[in-house]
Amino acid sequence: MNPITIFKQLHLSNRFFQVLAGIVLVFVIGYFVPVVGPIGEIIFYGFIVFFGVDALILYSRKNPLSGQRVTPQRLSNGDENPIRLQINSSLNFTVKVEIIDEVPHQFQLRDFSISTSLPPNQEQEFRYELRPTQRGEYDFGDINVFLQTALGFVRRSVTIPASETVPVYPSFIQMRKFEMYVISNRLTDAGIKKIRRLGHTMEFDQIKEYVRGDDVRSINWKATARANELMVNQYQDERSQNIINIIDTGRVMKMPFDGLHLLDYAINTSLVISNIALLKDDKAGLITFSNENAGVVKPQKRRTHIRRIQERLYNLQTNFLESDFERMLIALRKHVNQRSLVLLYTNFETFSAMERQLPYLQQIANRHLLVTIFFENTEMTRLIEKKPETLGEIYTQTIAEKFSFEKRQIVRALNQRGIQTILTPPKELSVNAINKYLELKSRGLI
Which of 102, 240, 233, 117 is nearest to 161 (CA)? Predict the structure, then answer.
């Protein structure tokens, strides 16, 4: 092996310096107590021998390790994504290893490592999870492994080439989770409310086995008697309705909560809503806007359409400028002619901010069923619930209550003008938006 390569891979361990410090201490004592001097020499020469043996064992093979990193083709934003490291040892003895994976800089993991032992001539798999909070491309580096024997005087570094770039997309894990709930009719398990239907005004579809969540009033007793198990009538909802997600990408959506911006919560939820709409044979569309031209994905009901929506959401970013609601209104009128359910994701912090956009909201509500979605400030809520102890805390709590009251005023003002609203904490956005969509659909309002 090349001496330069050996030198680069060679690292002295903490044990090496600890033993060396002990030997120095023995020699210092031997200076004052001559009897101890020869003992120090014996220990020193023994240390040199063990050091050499340790190094020879570690460098007995040119390529002691091989391996790879197994990552998904894309990562899901805001979710825990599994990463696997497969390390194969070709050594004939057990070694202690410290594995340092070069994770993307976006995670800011300065001390990430896995310490374990590798048995001889075996492959082991190690798992960990990463939670990205930004969309875009993430660059993984190499896998660095530090080996040492039981003696532990020397560490050898081995670099396994594993550089790769993995894109982070809007939360498709959350989308798939709700998709499975829809397919298995278990939305109530995810916190989705069971919507009571006043009679059946829809077309009969089929008779099927009863599953939890079905309306017990739909039980077909004749079919139940024949099959000797509960059977229910299934009715078909009105289909091919337009579901339009409109996302404000202005400065108001830059506010962070739990590592994600409000924009990311809106993106993840709009992807979930679009997927559920397509599963229910509705048409899903998307409009994004800020102070510039609006981006539009026209509503369609093909299942492959979700990919177009996902690609549109992938590179969506906020800016620090005021959004132009007039541009959004023009884009909606131009590209959507049929009456639709419009879910508008924005954030009104003050009543005056809502009043400036109210004329545009009313124009949308005249032609479509508009649901305006904005966010509770959870930090304000915590301040209000906390018991104040000083004059400054009382003042801060009073201001927080004022802003909270304004949020409730906004809801009341919009509802008085026939505009549906959702005021929600960011983490509960998906569940609350799905509940509203299913509620409006079951009531036949769209």
Answer: 102
Identify the structural domains of the chain with CATH numbers, from first to last.
3-58 (no CATH), 65-169 (2.60.40.10), 172-178+237-442 (3.40.50.410), 203-236 (no CATH)
Amino acid at 299: P
Cα torsion 235, 281, 333, 253: sign: positive
User: If we measure between CA atoms, which residue out of 301, 446, 437 comes closest to residue 368?
Assistant: 446
End-to-end CA distance of the chain: 74
Could you tell me how far CA 216 lies from the centroid of its own chain?
37
> Residue 49: how many CB atoms within 10 A of its CB?
10
Q: Examine the pLDDT at 180 and tell me if it is beyond 50.
A: yes
DSSP 65: E
pTM above 0.90, yes or no: no
Structure tokens of 251? 């400065």
Q: In whole angstroms, how far apart are CA 8 and each of 5, 96, 145, 155?
A: 5, 19, 13, 11
Instruction: Characterize the bridge pairing of strands 260-261 and 256-257.
Output: antiparallel
User: Each residue of 125-157: pLDDT tens digit?
Assistant: 999 999 999 999 999 999 999 999 988 899 999
- Phi, psi of 365, rounded to the nearest 5 degrees: -65, -25
CA 301 to chain centre: 26
Compute CA 119 distance to the chain's CA centroid, rounded to the nearest angstrom.
Answer: 35
For residue 223, the 8-state DSSP code is H
Give the residues across from 268 on adjacent strands. none
* Spatial strand order in the sheet of 295-300: 295-300, 283-289, 242-248, 340-345, 369-375, 420-424
Question: Distance of CA 41 to CAs 35, 47, 134, Å?
Answer: 11, 10, 59
CA-to-CA dists, residue 318 to 249, 299, 328, 346, 381, angstroms: 5, 23, 15, 12, 25
